[in-house]
Amino acid sequence: MPTITLENVTKRYKLNRRQRKESGGRRFETGVENIDLTIKQGEFVFIIGSSGAGKSTLLDLISGKLKPDRGRVSLDQKDLTKLIPWSHNRMAILFGKVQQEHSLIRKMTVEENLWVAAQVGRRRFESGKHLQERVDKVLGLVGMRGAGKKYPAEMSVGECRRVELARALINSPPILVLDEITANLDDDNIWDIFQLLMEVNHRGTTVIMATHASKYVNIMRRRVVTLVDGQIFGDVKKGRYGDVM
What we know:
Blueprint: E1 4-14, H1 17-22, E2 28-39, E3 44-48, H2 55-62, E4 70-75, E5 78-79, H3 80-86, H4 88-94, E6 95-98, H5 110-120, H6 128-141, H7 157-169, E7 175-179, H8 187-202, E8 206-210, H9 214-220, E9 223-228, E10 231-236
Helix pairs in contact: 5-6, 5-7, 6-7
């Protein structure tokens, strides 16, 4: 099972003309800088920090969505940037992702959204019946059994986030990468999602989660990595929100 390693990783973004003017002439903005980080299979890791600290950039580097400008991101010592062109589908199976922005296809039902994702990880000779069984199973796992025929507009924000989590889990990936999945949810929904993630993690799935939900980070007492201005400021096992040592 894959161990994730980041070695001296830096990612910068080129600013457009308006942004350069607003920033006093700077041509680039740093997303993350000089990141050294190792995440072993089966860990549950919170990535915390203020807005703009680099959390989303770090998650995108880990999952292969972004390539570093400097340094190396590896899965079991294999350079991730060399794996991505070789097999995009392979990366989609390795990483189940929920982005910060809601991303369900609004004109598709819940079931159809999950079918699209399931096709990526479809086993050779897998029948449509077995594919449907996977969809039903994962909806049951996230507490959305029977919601397959609904459209996103017919559901609450919390229900949509559950479906996005189901989509991330549909191919049984070894790694979950979650960007503010609990943002704008009430306490009941947040706790339900954390309970679900604990169950998934208990089964061996790596969970890497950017969050501002400090109360729940403190309750969970898992590994906490704190980013400040794109750099790792703290990395604490069984940490609390804000712990740096």
